[in-house]
């Protein structure tokens, strides 16, 4: 067994026995993996409150060949995000981020794009309350990072530019994009998407691509997460011109695009969305 | 013997080796120990139930805390599990009543507000006579989220909601304290 070390974000934990914890992390160097932290509940020296969900840590671990579980040796806090627990809105949004990252990734699949996106989004949520576009930007970036960038510019059927279409287009999750008003009769599934919602999705997609989220060019840990740069810079502008109906449409569209790539249903927004403030979206624009 | 090992293995944290060790221990002990153990296991299932007021474990309803006239019924301390209630009782500092939620919000594990005894807490508040709700959920991410939710639920009814303090343990040493605990203790500092 050899020791390894990597920055990582805690996605999930569960208690095991008297004082152990089984922890699933998304790491920069080794993708998603799970490990057992022996004596985690007792050892303030090796795990000083650092194996909590959303923790951004430097993780020391060792692995046996062919073993599914790593042995977690130590977790040192890398970047505190204490304000994620300041409001129920932030907690719910952050839960959605780690849950989506967990259900979209496969263990032992190496690649740091998703790690960078999750780190940047949690840093953004720590900096300020989530807005109507915060989670949509994250979801689009996660799709980009996983190689499922949706086609929102041209029709999946005839390759005609969708922007030239006056009627609603049909978004089909399985196709990973939309069909124009002429081709949409070919498919029955999916959802009809208004021009306003399509335009908003396009703006968000351009912001994600420009910021380099999802293709490995973003900085580590999202230190610039809320300084007016990166994809978050468009949040305010998108939110200002987005009607409540279009916001709901965009959220449903992203649900549809994500669904084929998720292992299991996303539950954070479903369970906590209804208890938040916004009656339209079930929670401060989160949904 | 094999049956006992199999049954013991069903307990949390007990694997094959520990179950076998415990089974051999029972085998070596005298008959009265086995009889007492069996009797204790049966009676805990037959006699223990939840208190209809605080949802703590009890053998009589209401429990001895809810029934005690010397305690302050206008103060209610909200905890996650009955074990937390026992821990607070050991401190011998709190003289109010309790409300056991039965867990904490954990959306990733599928535990939402409807899985906890939040509605029952609101009912208690609506019945009136409460001056303070002390939220004593664990200082974990899930416990903090639950505390936020309880505050959001109860505050509109005009009851004071407080959160137990977090910070340095008695006998602790600043030099060896982790960054999160230190920042929480600074955040929760108070006038002297």
Question: Would you give an account of this structure?
Answer:
The complex is a heterodimer of chains A (287) and B (192). Chain A has 287 residues and is of the alpha+beta class. Chain A contains seven helices and eight strands, in the order βββββαααβββαααα. In chain A, α1 runs antiparallel to α2. The radius of gyration of chain A is 20 Å and the shape is elongated. Residues 216-228 and 278-284 of chain A have low confidence and may be disordered. In chain B, α1 packs across α2 (16-28).
The secondary-structure element order of chain A is: EEEEEHHHEEEHHHH
Q: How many individual domains of chain B?
A: 2
Extended strand count of chain B: 6
Choose one word for the global shape of chain B. globular
- Proportion of helical residues of chain A: 25-40%
Gross CATH architecture of the largest domain in chain B? 3-Layer(aba) Sandwich
CATH class of the largest domain in chain B: Alpha Beta
User: Strand order of the main beta sheet of chain B, please?
Assistant: 4-3-5-6
Give the SSE string of chain B.
Answer: HHHEEHEHEHEHEH
From the alpha-carbon coordinates, what is the Rg of chain A to the nearest angstrom? 20 Å
Distance between the termini of chain A: 45 Å
**Oligomer description:** heterodimer
Number of helix segments of chain A? 7
Unreliable stretches of chain A, pLDDT < 50, 5 or more residues?
A: 216-228, 278-284
């Amino acid at each position: 067994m050899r020791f390894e070390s990597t920055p990582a974000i805690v996605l999930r934990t569960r208690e095991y026995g008297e004082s152990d914890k089984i922890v699933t992390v998304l790491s920069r160097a080794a993708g998603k993996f799970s490990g057992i932290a022996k004596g985690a509940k007792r050892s303030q020296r090796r795990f000083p409150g650092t194996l909590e969900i959303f923790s951004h840590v430097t993780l020391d671990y060792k692995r046996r060949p062919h073993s599914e579980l790593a042995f977690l040796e130590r977790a040192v806090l890398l970047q505190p995000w204490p304000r994620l627990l300041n409001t129920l809105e932030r907690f719910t949004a952050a839960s959605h981020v780690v849950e989506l990252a967990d259900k979209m990734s496969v263990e032992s699949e190496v690649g740091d794009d998703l790690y960078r996106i999750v780190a940047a989004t949690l840093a953004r949520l720590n900096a300020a309350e989530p807005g109507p576009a915060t989670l949509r930007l994250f979801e689009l970036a996660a799709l980009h990072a996983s190689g499922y960038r949706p086609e929102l510019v041209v029709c999946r059927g005839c390759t005609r530019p969708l922007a030239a279409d006056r009627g609603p287009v049909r978004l089909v999750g399985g196709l990973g994009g939309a069909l124009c008003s002429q081709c949409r009769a070919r498919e029955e599934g999916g959802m009809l998407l208004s021009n306003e919602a399509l335009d908003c999705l396009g703006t968000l997609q351009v912001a994600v691509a420009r910021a380099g989220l999802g293709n490995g060019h973003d900085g580590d840990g999202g230190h610039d997460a809320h300084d007016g740069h990166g994809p978050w810079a468009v949040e305010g502008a998108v939110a200002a011109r987005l009607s409540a109906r279009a916001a709901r449409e965009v959220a449903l569209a992203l649900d549809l695009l994500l669904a084929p790539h998720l292992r299991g249903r996303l539950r954070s927004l479903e369970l906590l969305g209804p208890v938040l403030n916004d009656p339209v979206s079930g929670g401060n624009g989160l949904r | 013997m094999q049956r006992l090992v199999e049954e013991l293995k069903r307990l949390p944290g007990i694997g094959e080796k520990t179950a076998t060790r415990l089974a051999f221990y029972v085998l070596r002990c005298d008959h009265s120990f086995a009889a007492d153990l069996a009797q204790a296991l049966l009676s805990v299932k037959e006699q223990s139930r939840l208190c209809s007021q605080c949802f703590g474990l009890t053998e009589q309803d209401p429990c001895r805390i809810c029934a005690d006239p010397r305690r302050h019924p206008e103060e209610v301390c909200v905890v996650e599990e009955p074990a937390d209630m026992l821990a607070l009782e050991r401190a011998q500092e709190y003289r109010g009543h309790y409300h056991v939620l039965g867990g904490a919000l954990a959306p990733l594990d599928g535990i939402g507000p409807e899985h906890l005894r939040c509605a029952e807490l609101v009912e208690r508040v609506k019945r009136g006579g409460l001056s303070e709700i002390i939220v004593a959920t664990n200082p974990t991410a899930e416990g903090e989220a639950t505390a936020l939710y309880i505050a959001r639920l109860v505050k509109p009814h005009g009851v004071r909601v407080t959160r137990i303090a977090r910070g340095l343990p008695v006998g602790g040493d600043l030099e060896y304290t982790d960054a999160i605990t230190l920042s929480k203790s600074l955040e929760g500092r108070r006038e002297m």
